Amino acid sequence: IPGILDLKNLLLWRNSRKTLIVFTGILLLLLDVMVHSVISVISMVGITVLIAAIGHRLLVQFWSIWKKDENKDQILRFYPHPKIEIPREETLYLAGKAVSHINLILNRMIELLLVEKWEDSLKFLVLLCGINLLGDCFNGLTLLIFGMCICCLTLLYL
After folding, report:
1. What is the distance between the alpha carbons of residues 37 and 141, in angstroms, rounded to a whole number?
2. Cα separation of 84 and 106, whole Å?
3. What is the distance between the alpha carbons of residues 21 and 6, in angstroms, rounded to a whole number?
4. Measured between alpha carbons, how far is 135 from 35 in angstroms, rounded to an integer?
5. CB of 85 within 8 A of CB of 107?
6. What does the alpha-carbon distance between residue 78 and residue 25 come to, in Å, rounded to a whole number?
7. Is 141 exposed, middle or buried (0-12, 13-18, 19+ CB in 10 A)?
8. For 57, which DSSP code?
């Protein structure tokens, strides 16, 4: 199994550069979770990835304008457009219709992170910033309790 062999090689430090990058990332993530809430950490990772993608997209557009390239599809050439699909045969016993929803969500996230539509990606960036501010104010468990109370109140009044 390739995943287990990669993990074994990672734990045995066979490729020291790769292991150092992975373990440093995990250590920084754990230190960040100690200081900030999990919600803030997840939203900041999303903000960082989205800002890097927007910066890369702007750089590619700048280079195409600077070189006066008339081919507008050149930008799409830099972005492979992977479609994520979970095989239905293996997941029928877990969830029937959930597979199509997961595929839609993952493909939509790829569209947002690859900045296919500027306004959608910028709206997502604003949403992540709002979640980050919310995570700085409240603990994740507190937000779950608030959500549960809101759900119970709405069900009570329906």
Report:
1. 10
2. 7
3. 14
4. 12
5. no
6. 26
7. exposed
8. H
The dihedrals phi and psi of 70, each to the nearest 5 degrees, come to -85, -10
Q: Are 107 and 83 in contact (CB under 8 A)?
A: yes
Q: Say how many C-beta atoms besides its own lie within 10 A of residue 115's C-beta.
A: 23
Phi-psi region of 96 (alpha: psi -120 to 50; beta: other; left: phi over 0): alpha
Per-residue pLDDT tens over the stretch 60-116: 888 878 877 655 555 555 556 667 776 767 667 666 777 778 888 999 988 888 888
- Is the distance from CB of 41 to CB of 29 less than 8 angstroms? yes
Residue 83 CA to residue 100 CA, distance in Å, equals: 12
Percentage of the chain lying above the pLDDT 70 cut: 82
Q: d(Cα 2, Cα 15) in Å, to the nearest integer? A: 16
Eight-class DSSP state of 69 = -
Write down the H helix ranges in 12-83: 16-35, 38-66, 74-78
d(CA 139, CA 43): 14
What is the per-residue pLDDT for 63? 81
